[in-house]
Amino acid sequence: MPEVGPWVIFERPKTFEYGEWVLFKEVQELLKWGIQRSQACGGNTILCNKKGVSWYQDHRRNAAQRMTKWWGEVPNGKTITGVGVITRIQRIDAAFPKHPLKNLRKVLPNLLRQDYGSEIADLSNARRVARTSVTNRYSDPRYATLKMAILDLRPKLQPLLDELAKDS
């Protein structure tokens, strides 16, 4: 299968499991925006405010509060960031899964599992799957199936991609 789009291919730092993920155009744009913003204000993380302060703050009790609000905030008259990304998506597509930010990595495997089964879903999470060895990872037909499956999911993910594009 020919390579389509920019793929991120690496071993996960914690588990050293091989993984392949596509970066859709909207995600690329959001990353470019984050990198440019960070460089412009002297920040050292991709997600930071206009002063260069990271959205994730290790020293705080709720370290991911700013990112969590950006993702799922519901207007209540006291909102800081406005309406969260997932809240806006649910207004457009009520069937879109409303996972909290910390569970966002579960969206892709859950969608893949519906049409392609558990083995392909586990590959998307960079989990070791039976019969996978270092020597056959690059020629394993399951990785070709995973690539095709991820690209096939684009229409289901379009509401999310559209909302991310608005934030970049």
Describe this structure as you would to a colleague.
With 168 residues, the chain is mainly alpha-helical. The chain has helices at residues 25-40, 65-72, 85-92, 107-116, 118-124, 141-152, 154-167; strands at residues 7-11, 18-22. It has one domain (7-167). It has 7 helices and 2 strands; from the N terminus they run E-E-H-H-H-H-H-H-H. Strands 1-2 form a two-stranded antiparallel ribbon. The mean pLDDT is 78.
**Count of extended strands:** 2
Number of domains: 1
Could you say which overall geometry the principal axes of the C-alpha atoms support? globular
Rounded to the nearest angstrom, the radius of gyration is 18 Å
- Biggest sheet details: 2 strands, antiparallel
Structural class: mainly alpha
Give the helix proportion (percent range). 40-55%
Return the string of H and E elements.
Answer: EEHHHHHHH
**Biggest β-sheet: strands ordered side by side in the sheet:** 1-2
Oligomer: single chain
